[in-house]
Amino acid sequence: MAALWSGRFAEEPHRATFEFGASFRVDRRLFEDDVAGSLAWVRALADAGVLTADEHTALGVALHHILDQGRGDPGFVSGDDEDVHTFVERLVVEATGEIGRKLHTGRSRNEQVSLDLRLYLRRRIPLLRQAVAALVTALADRADAAADTLMPAYTHLRPAQPILAAHFFLAHAAALRRDDDRLAAAAREADALPLGSGAVAGTAYPIDTGALATRLGFSRVVVNSVDASSDRDFAVSFLHAASLAMVHLSRLAEDLIIFTGDEMHLFDLPDALSTGSSLMPQKKNPDPLELIRGKTGRVVGHQIGLLIALKGLPSGYNKDLQEDKEAIFDAEDTLGGSLAAMTAVLDGLRIDADRASRAASGLLLATDVADALVARGVPFRDAHASVGALVRRLVSEGRSFDALTADEWRDADPRFEPGIAERVTSAASVRAKQTPQSTHPEAVAAALADTRAWIASR
Ligand code: ARG
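A: This is the predicted complex of the input protein with arginine.
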């Protein structure tokens, strides 16, 4: 139990409460970033004339040595220190003695923890974006493999209209591309150097913050030290991006759970990605998909939790802010794990083309039948009523449009053109769509090409 602030106190810290407040168990994950920040800080102190060249060299050597040790052995980053900043400073002092005790000159852990988190997110967000791109690739591959296979699109989870199965896969790819944008935006928000803010009022040493920002790879410096010491907007933005990505994964999971079930079986879930029942020998359960859906609440909860932690804080640093890290790390782990699991599921997913095509025909062609009347000059509302009556009759007879004879078509509505039966098919339905975002085969081919180009641009 070694705190950086014991000088002011006559008593030893209360053991259990000190442990309650310690964050090293969690923030040890910021080790590399903390050392990188300290390396840049000692250089800035030397440039400002606060450290001699020799002192700077000694601190740099010690920090590099600590970094190597921590990288080589994760178990090295441990101890009963209060947090990762304390840990690194203790090791520097152990290595350099008196000189190490100058490391923290002009600097506060308040800005240090903000710096570390910003560096961490900058390093880790690209990995999540790569995982998003891998899933988009898996969806594009499934769209490719689906070729001209048809399936139903649903509204209210009732069969609505035929679409190309490729259109379904690319729908989820479109949502994930927005997630990539949001993750990139969170990284841009984190891209500001907080050092120079001190504890809250700034630092009393002539630190060249612009040079320090450049050295640490930041494109700008924060504008206000009071704001900077408690600004966690970038953390909330990251959690928001992660939450929405999880919501998209959860909705895809739900689609696949329904579509791979025995009743629908539009898709087949490979055995390797399913789990059995300890009791019921026939079961083939979609556990990975259910887990993705289940874990989504955790990440959304982290975002809400941090917003609530922030809402009542007075200006400047408050210890409540320490809660940001568990939220960020767990959201990162959960999203990363879910993306990998979903990519594996997509890679193994097969379309049951017969079942999917059959499910895409029948009464869900009713809109096309109504459009056929509109083509004959019938106002749409009248066409809707006429086809609605026909559907009601067919449902009661347990039949569909394809069972109607030419006479029956004419009896149902004399305005139907002759040869209507041949025109009312699922394939004709998708070809009838005319907008770029539609399921027309050419529009879907263009969307797939656009998705491939996006992947290639990563
Ligand atoms: N462990 C702290 C955190 O994560 C670091 C900052 C501590 N600052 C302080 N004044 N106690 O927020």
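The chain is about 60% helix and 5% strand. The chain has a mean pLDDT of 97.
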